Amino acid sequence: MDNSNQRLNDVFFYGLYMDEEILKNKNVEPRNKRVAFANDYQLRIGNMATLLRKKDSQAYGLVYSLTHDEIDTLYKKSGLTDYISESILVELDDGSKIATLCCILLNEPSSSESNPEYFKKLKLCMESYNLPLPTTV
Question: Where is the Gamma-glutamylcyclotransferase AIG2-like domain (predicted)?
Answer without folding.
Answer: 11-105
